[in-house]
Every structure is written in structure tokens, then in C-alpha cells.
Write a structure and sequence with these properties.
Layout: H1 2-41, H2 45-48, E1 59-62, E2 65-68, H3 70-80, H4 84-87, E3 89-101, E4 104-114, E5 120-131, E6 134-143
Parallel strand pairs: 1-6
Antiparallel strand pairs: 1-2, 3-4, 4-5, 5-6
Length: 144
Amino acid sequence: MKNILAFAVLVTIYSCNMKADIKADKAAILKVMKNQEVAWSTNDLDGFMEGYYKSDSLKFYGKNGLTKGWQQTLDNYKKGYPSKDHSGTLTFQITDISPIESQSYWVMGSYFLKRNIGDANGVFMVIFKKIKGKWKIVSDISCG
């Protein structure tokens, strides 16, 4: 009986720690996305890309197909959003953040660009992975 009680206590402690970790992870991911909103909204596309994993393994899938690599993704953003009029003000609406496995989550939601040249909206799913202690997007699927 003592073994069963000890096991139940350990499971409860582990479960509470896991829930606290998930809550902290989600808060850190939301902070990255808030920083992206701020950077984008000032047409600081380099700052916006700080949320992405700076690697050739980054994948972005959008209306123009698959883009591979951090630099190519940045170059595409700079080409498509050359000025503040084009980038506008970005707002994310997060629908779901769920763990995939240890140290990785998917985030699903909508984005809204309020712009002088016409608003643009769409949906996205990004995958965040904790790399060297920082949350980074390793994959992005955006449709608008």
C-alpha cells in the first residue's frame, strides 16, 4: 500500500511540473510572436525573422509554394513587403498551441494586416522548437 501511495505522489508531482512547463513554454512562444508583431508593424523584417530558426533547414509554405532556408524566406518578405505601406500593422489571433513532443509545439491561428494599400488576412500553422534555449519557428505554413 505504501508503494502505491508513493507512486501516486510521484505521478502527481510529475504531472504538476509538466503542466507548469507547458504553461511557461506557451508564454515564451507567445512572447516571440508578440515581438514579431511589433517588428513587422514597423517594417523591421530582419527583427521579425528573429522568431525563425536561422538555418537552411527552415521551411516556409505559402501561396507561392515551398521556400527553404532562413535567408530566402527573409529575401521573399523583403521583396513582397518593401515598405511600411506594404507590411502595415500585424496582429496575430492564436487559436491553439499544443505540444508535439518534448521541446516542440505547433501554433495555429490567423493573421491580420491592416494596410493603407488594402488589408490582408489569412491563417497559419507554425512549428516552434526550443533550440539552444530559445524558441524558434522551424516550419511555417501560411495561407492568405
